[in-house]
Design brief:
The chain has 326 residues and is of the alpha+beta class. It contains nine helices and 14 strands. Helix content is 31%, strand content 26%. The model has no long low-confidence stretch (mean pLDDT 90).
Length: 326
Protein backbone atom coordinates (compact mmCIF):
# COMPACT_ATOMS: atom_id res chain seq x y z
CA UNK A 1 0.00 0.00 0.00
CA UNK A 2 2.84 2.41 0.85
CA UNK A 3 4.43 1.90 -2.55
CA UNK A 4 1.11 2.55 -4.31
CA UNK A 5 0.63 5.80 -2.38
CA UNK A 6 4.16 6.88 -3.26
CA UNK A 7 3.50 6.09 -6.91
CA UNK A 8 0.41 8.30 -6.90
CA UNK A 9 2.26 11.15 -5.20
CA UNK A 10 5.18 10.88 -7.63
CA UNK A 11 2.82 10.98 -10.61
CA UNK A 12 1.21 14.09 -9.19
CA UNK A 13 4.57 15.87 -9.17
CA UNK A 14 4.33 19.23 -7.39
CA UNK A 15 0.55 19.10 -7.41
CA UNK A 16 -1.35 18.19 -4.26
CA UNK A 17 -3.42 15.01 -4.13
CA UNK A 18 -6.27 14.86 -1.64
CA UNK A 19 -6.62 12.07 0.86
CA UNK A 20 -10.09 11.47 -0.50
CA UNK A 21 -8.76 11.04 -4.04
CA UNK A 22 -5.97 8.68 -2.89
CA UNK A 23 -8.49 6.63 -0.90
CA UNK A 24 -10.83 6.44 -3.89
CA UNK A 25 -8.10 5.29 -6.29
CA UNK A 26 -6.78 2.65 -3.92
CA UNK A 27 -10.11 1.47 -2.57
CA UNK A 28 -9.31 2.19 1.08
CA UNK A 29 -10.52 4.61 3.74
CA UNK A 30 -9.12 8.10 4.27
CA UNK A 31 -8.06 6.95 7.73
CA UNK A 32 -5.97 4.20 6.15
CA UNK A 33 -4.37 6.74 3.80
CA UNK A 34 -3.51 9.02 6.72
CA UNK A 35 -1.98 6.07 8.60
CA UNK A 36 0.27 5.14 5.65
CA UNK A 37 1.26 8.78 5.10
CA UNK A 38 2.29 8.92 8.76
CA UNK A 39 4.40 5.76 8.34
CA UNK A 40 6.05 7.16 5.23
CA UNK A 41 6.98 10.33 7.08
CA UNK A 42 8.46 8.25 9.89
CA UNK A 43 10.51 6.39 7.29
CA UNK A 44 12.03 9.68 6.16
CA UNK A 45 9.78 10.86 3.32
CA UNK A 46 9.11 14.61 3.26
CA UNK A 47 5.40 14.77 2.50
CA UNK A 48 3.74 18.16 2.68
CA UNK A 49 0.09 18.48 3.61
CA UNK A 50 -2.20 21.41 2.99
CA UNK A 51 -5.72 21.90 4.24
CA UNK A 52 -8.34 21.23 1.54
CA UNK A 53 -5.56 20.38 -0.95
CA UNK A 54 -4.09 17.13 0.32
CA UNK A 55 -0.57 15.74 0.12
CA UNK A 56 2.52 16.38 -1.98
CA UNK A 57 5.82 14.46 -2.02
CA UNK A 58 8.62 16.96 -1.47
CA UNK A 59 11.63 14.66 -1.01
CA UNK A 60 12.54 11.00 -0.55
CA UNK A 61 15.19 9.66 1.83
CA UNK A 62 18.42 8.10 0.58
CA UNK A 63 17.52 4.89 2.36
CA UNK A 64 17.58 1.46 0.78
CA UNK A 65 13.83 1.00 1.06
CA UNK A 66 12.13 -1.33 -1.40
CA UNK A 67 9.88 1.49 -2.61
CA UNK A 68 12.88 3.68 -3.45
CA UNK A 69 14.96 0.96 -5.09
CA UNK A 70 12.09 -0.18 -7.32
CA UNK A 71 11.27 3.38 -8.38
CA UNK A 72 12.78 3.63 -11.86
CA UNK A 73 14.69 0.34 -11.60
CA UNK A 74 15.37 -1.02 -15.11
CA UNK A 75 15.80 -4.78 -14.68
CA UNK A 76 14.17 -7.91 -16.03
CA UNK A 77 14.26 -9.98 -12.85
CA UNK A 78 16.95 -8.83 -10.39
CA UNK A 79 15.38 -6.68 -7.68
CA UNK A 80 11.79 -7.35 -8.71
CA UNK A 81 11.35 -8.74 -5.19
CA UNK A 82 13.15 -6.83 -2.42
CA UNK A 83 13.24 -7.68 1.28
CA UNK A 84 14.42 -4.75 3.41
CA UNK A 85 15.73 -4.71 6.98
CA UNK A 86 16.77 -1.70 8.98
CA UNK A 87 19.31 -3.88 10.79
CA UNK A 88 20.10 -7.57 10.53
CA UNK A 89 22.85 -10.00 11.48
CA UNK A 90 23.54 -11.17 7.92
CA UNK A 91 21.72 -10.63 4.62
CA UNK A 92 23.26 -13.85 3.30
CA UNK A 93 21.73 -15.88 6.11
CA UNK A 94 18.24 -14.54 5.41
CA UNK A 95 18.69 -14.94 1.66
CA UNK A 96 19.66 -18.60 2.09
CA UNK A 97 16.56 -19.19 4.20
CA UNK A 98 14.34 -17.52 1.60
CA UNK A 99 16.03 -19.44 -1.22
CA UNK A 100 15.43 -22.75 0.58
CA UNK A 101 11.76 -21.77 0.86
CA UNK A 102 11.54 -21.20 -2.89
CA UNK A 103 12.15 -17.46 -3.30
CA UNK A 104 12.43 -16.45 -6.95
CA UNK A 105 15.71 -15.89 -8.73
CA UNK A 106 16.64 -12.21 -8.50
CA UNK A 107 15.22 -11.76 -4.99
CA UNK A 108 17.29 -9.19 -3.08
CA UNK A 109 17.78 -8.93 0.68
CA UNK A 110 19.18 -5.55 1.72
CA UNK A 111 19.88 -3.94 5.10
CA UNK A 112 20.87 -0.53 6.35
CA UNK A 113 23.25 -2.24 8.79
CA UNK A 114 24.62 -5.71 9.49
CA UNK A 115 25.68 -6.99 12.87
CA UNK A 116 27.51 -10.08 11.67
CA UNK A 117 28.51 -9.39 8.08
CA UNK A 118 31.05 -11.87 6.68
CA UNK A 119 33.46 -11.85 3.80
CA UNK A 120 35.64 -14.52 2.22
CA UNK A 121 37.54 -16.92 4.48
CA UNK A 122 34.96 -16.20 7.22
CA UNK A 123 36.33 -12.72 7.93
CA UNK A 124 34.04 -10.18 9.56
CA UNK A 125 32.91 -7.22 7.44
CA UNK A 126 32.41 -3.69 8.79
CA UNK A 127 28.83 -2.73 7.89
CA UNK A 128 27.81 0.57 9.55
CA UNK A 129 24.26 1.87 9.36
CA UNK A 130 23.32 4.12 6.50
CA UNK A 131 26.86 4.33 5.12
CA UNK A 132 27.05 1.50 2.62
CA UNK A 133 25.11 -1.05 0.63
CA UNK A 134 24.88 -4.45 2.31
CA UNK A 135 22.86 -6.90 0.28
CA UNK A 136 22.47 -10.45 -0.99
CA UNK A 137 20.85 -11.66 -4.19
CA UNK A 138 19.39 -15.09 -4.88
CA UNK A 139 20.22 -16.57 -8.28
CA UNK A 140 19.18 -19.84 -9.87
CA UNK A 141 21.44 -19.97 -12.95
CA UNK A 142 21.36 -22.81 -15.46
CA UNK A 143 24.99 -23.77 -14.96
CA UNK A 144 26.82 -26.73 -13.46
CA UNK A 145 27.85 -26.61 -9.77
CA UNK A 146 31.54 -26.49 -10.66
CA UNK A 147 30.93 -23.22 -12.51
CA UNK A 148 29.45 -21.48 -9.46
CA UNK A 149 32.72 -19.80 -8.32
CA UNK A 150 32.64 -17.76 -11.52
CA UNK A 151 29.49 -16.05 -10.23
CA UNK A 152 31.80 -14.28 -7.79
CA UNK A 153 33.66 -12.77 -10.75
CA UNK A 154 30.31 -11.81 -12.27
CA UNK A 155 29.32 -9.94 -9.10
CA UNK A 156 32.61 -8.01 -9.06
CA UNK A 157 32.11 -7.01 -12.69
CA UNK A 158 28.59 -5.79 -11.88
CA UNK A 159 29.94 -3.44 -9.22
CA UNK A 160 32.68 -2.29 -11.60
CA UNK A 161 30.07 -1.48 -14.26
CA UNK A 162 28.04 0.53 -11.75
CA UNK A 163 31.16 2.44 -10.69
CA UNK A 164 31.86 3.34 -14.30
CA UNK A 165 28.40 4.90 -14.57
CA UNK A 166 29.40 7.20 -11.70
CA UNK A 167 32.76 8.12 -13.24
CA UNK A 168 34.82 5.73 -11.11
CA UNK A 169 37.33 3.18 -12.41
CA UNK A 170 37.25 -0.16 -10.60
CA UNK A 171 40.38 -2.15 -9.81
CA UNK A 172 39.58 -5.81 -9.13
CA UNK A 173 41.97 -7.97 -7.13
CA UNK A 174 41.42 -11.68 -7.72
CA UNK A 175 38.86 -12.99 -7.28
CA UNK A 176 36.42 -10.26 -6.30
CA UNK A 177 37.88 -7.53 -4.08
CA UNK A 178 37.50 -4.04 -5.55
CA UNK A 179 40.27 -1.70 -4.47
CA UNK A 180 41.21 1.97 -4.53
CA UNK A 181 44.85 2.80 -3.93
CA UNK A 182 45.32 -0.67 -2.48
CA UNK A 183 42.42 -0.33 -0.01
CA UNK A 184 39.24 -2.37 -0.13
CA UNK A 185 35.99 -0.85 -1.37
CA UNK A 186 33.89 -3.96 -1.77
CA UNK A 187 33.69 -7.49 -0.42
CA UNK A 188 31.78 -10.37 -2.02
CA UNK A 189 30.83 -13.75 -0.57
CA UNK A 190 29.19 -16.44 -2.71
CA UNK A 191 27.40 -19.41 -1.14
CA UNK A 192 25.62 -22.27 -2.86
CA UNK A 193 23.19 -25.14 -2.40
CA UNK A 194 23.63 -27.81 -5.05
CA UNK A 195 23.34 -31.43 -5.97
CA UNK A 196 25.84 -33.39 -8.08
CA UNK A 197 24.53 -32.16 -11.40
CA UNK A 198 22.43 -29.11 -10.62
CA UNK A 199 22.42 -25.90 -8.60
CA UNK A 200 19.48 -25.33 -6.28
CA UNK A 201 20.46 -21.72 -5.67
CA UNK A 202 23.40 -19.36 -5.36
CA UNK A 203 23.43 -16.48 -2.87
CA UNK A 204 25.85 -13.66 -3.60
CA UNK A 205 26.43 -11.37 -0.64
CA UNK A 206 28.00 -8.00 -1.37
CA UNK A 207 29.17 -5.21 0.89
CA UNK A 208 29.97 -1.86 -0.73
CA UNK A 209 31.57 0.94 1.29
CA UNK A 210 29.74 3.97 -0.10
CA UNK A 211 29.73 7.02 2.17
CA UNK A 212 32.07 6.03 4.99
CA UNK A 213 34.57 8.74 5.92
CA UNK A 214 38.17 7.71 6.55
CA UNK A 215 37.91 8.54 10.24
CA UNK A 216 34.73 6.45 10.58
CA UNK A 217 36.53 3.19 9.85
CA UNK A 218 37.79 1.32 12.92
CA UNK A 219 41.44 2.14 13.50
CA UNK A 220 42.53 -1.37 12.56
CA UNK A 221 40.87 -0.99 9.13
CA UNK A 222 42.01 2.50 8.12
CA UNK A 223 45.04 1.25 6.22
CA UNK A 224 43.00 -1.56 4.61
CA UNK A 225 39.58 -0.13 3.71
CA UNK A 226 38.18 2.90 1.94
CA UNK A 227 34.89 4.05 0.37
CA UNK A 228 33.47 5.32 -2.88
CA UNK A 229 32.96 8.74 -1.27
CA UNK A 230 36.65 8.94 -0.38
CA UNK A 231 37.52 7.88 -3.92
CA UNK A 232 35.19 10.41 -5.58
CA UNK A 233 35.68 13.22 -3.08
CA UNK A 234 31.97 13.51 -2.32
CA UNK A 235 29.06 11.39 -1.12
CA UNK A 236 27.19 9.26 -3.62
CA UNK A 237 23.40 8.71 -3.71
CA UNK A 238 23.12 5.18 -2.36
CA UNK A 239 19.78 4.32 -3.92
CA UNK A 240 20.90 5.40 -7.39
CA UNK A 241 24.19 3.52 -7.07
CA UNK A 242 22.41 0.39 -5.84
CA UNK A 243 20.04 0.57 -8.80
CA UNK A 244 23.07 0.72 -11.10
CA UNK A 245 24.53 -2.37 -9.43
CA UNK A 246 21.28 -4.33 -9.75
CA UNK A 247 20.83 -3.28 -13.37
CA UNK A 248 24.41 -4.35 -14.18
CA UNK A 249 23.92 -7.65 -12.39
CA UNK A 250 20.68 -8.24 -14.28
CA UNK A 251 22.36 -7.55 -17.64
CA UNK A 252 25.28 -9.87 -16.85
CA UNK A 253 22.97 -12.71 -15.78
CA UNK A 254 21.10 -12.42 -19.06
CA UNK A 255 24.41 -12.39 -20.93
CA UNK A 256 25.44 -15.50 -19.00
CA UNK A 257 22.32 -17.33 -20.16
CA UNK A 258 22.86 -16.30 -23.77
CA UNK A 259 26.65 -16.39 -24.18
CA UNK A 260 28.17 -18.17 -21.20
CA UNK A 261 30.91 -16.86 -18.95
CA UNK A 262 33.53 -15.94 -21.59
CA UNK A 263 32.39 -12.30 -22.15
CA UNK A 264 32.10 -11.79 -18.37
CA UNK A 265 35.61 -13.12 -17.79
CA UNK A 266 36.84 -10.73 -20.50
CA UNK A 267 35.20 -7.82 -18.66
CA UNK A 268 36.84 -9.03 -15.42
CA UNK A 269 40.29 -9.08 -17.06
CA UNK A 270 39.80 -5.49 -18.24
CA UNK A 271 39.42 -4.35 -14.61
CA UNK A 272 42.00 -6.69 -13.04
CA UNK A 273 44.95 -5.28 -11.09
CA UNK A 274 46.29 -8.69 -10.03
CA UNK A 275 47.37 -9.82 -13.49
CA UNK A 276 50.99 -9.10 -14.32
CA UNK A 277 51.85 -8.53 -10.66
CA UNK A 278 54.15 -10.39 -8.31
CA UNK A 279 51.90 -12.01 -5.73
CA UNK A 280 51.95 -14.14 -2.63
CA UNK A 281 49.32 -16.85 -2.40
CA UNK A 282 48.17 -18.30 0.92
CA UNK A 283 45.99 -21.41 0.68
CA UNK A 284 42.43 -21.38 2.00
CA UNK A 285 43.58 -23.55 4.93
CA UNK A 286 46.50 -21.23 5.67
CA UNK A 287 48.89 -24.18 5.68
CA UNK A 288 50.65 -23.38 2.42
CA UNK A 289 51.99 -20.27 0.74
CA UNK A 290 54.02 -19.50 -2.34
CA UNK A 291 55.18 -16.56 -4.45
CA UNK A 292 54.94 -16.02 -8.17
CA UNK A 293 53.66 -13.83 -10.98
CA UNK A 294 49.93 -13.73 -11.70
CA UNK A 295 49.66 -14.11 -15.45
CA UNK A 296 45.97 -14.74 -16.17
CA UNK A 297 42.74 -16.44 -15.13
CA UNK A 298 41.48 -19.46 -17.02
CA UNK A 299 37.96 -20.11 -18.28
CA UNK A 300 37.06 -21.58 -14.88
CA UNK A 301 38.05 -18.34 -13.12
CA UNK A 302 41.14 -19.87 -11.49
CA UNK A 303 44.18 -17.63 -11.10
CA UNK A 304 47.25 -18.81 -13.00
CA UNK A 305 50.48 -18.06 -11.14
CA UNK A 306 53.87 -18.59 -12.70
CA UNK A 307 56.36 -19.79 -10.08
CA UNK A 308 59.96 -20.99 -10.15
CA UNK A 309 58.56 -24.54 -10.17
CA UNK A 310 56.13 -23.94 -13.01
CA UNK A 311 52.55 -22.74 -13.46
CA UNK A 312 50.19 -23.15 -10.52
CA UNK A 313 46.41 -22.92 -10.67
CA UNK A 314 44.70 -21.21 -7.72
CA UNK A 315 41.00 -21.91 -7.18
CA UNK A 316 40.74 -20.62 -3.59
CA UNK A 317 42.94 -18.76 -1.19
CA UNK A 318 44.22 -15.32 -0.25
CA UNK A 319 46.26 -13.44 -2.85
CA UNK A 320 48.24 -10.33 -1.98
CA UNK A 321 50.09 -8.14 -4.45
CA UNK A 322 53.67 -7.58 -3.33
CA UNK A 323 57.27 -7.62 -4.51
CA UNK A 324 58.44 -11.17 -5.05
CA UNK A 325 61.18 -10.85 -2.43
CA UNK A 326 58.77 -9.57 0.27
Amino acid sequence: MRSRILELLRRAGEEYLSGEEIAKRLGVSRTAVWKHIKELREAGYAIKSQSRSGYSLEDAPDRLLAEEIKNGLQTHFVGRNIVFFDEIDSTNQVAKQLAAQGAASGTVVVAEAQGKGRGRLNRSYFSPKGKGIWFSVILRPHILPQEAPKCTLLAAVAVAMAMKRFGLQAAIKWPNDILHEGKKLTGILTEMSAEIDRINYIVIGTGINVNIKEEEFPEELRDKATSLAVMKGENLPRVAFFQAVLESLDALCIQLDEEGFSPIIARWRACAVTLGQEVRVISATGKESFDGRAVDIDEEGALLVETEDGMRRVLAGDVSIRPKNA
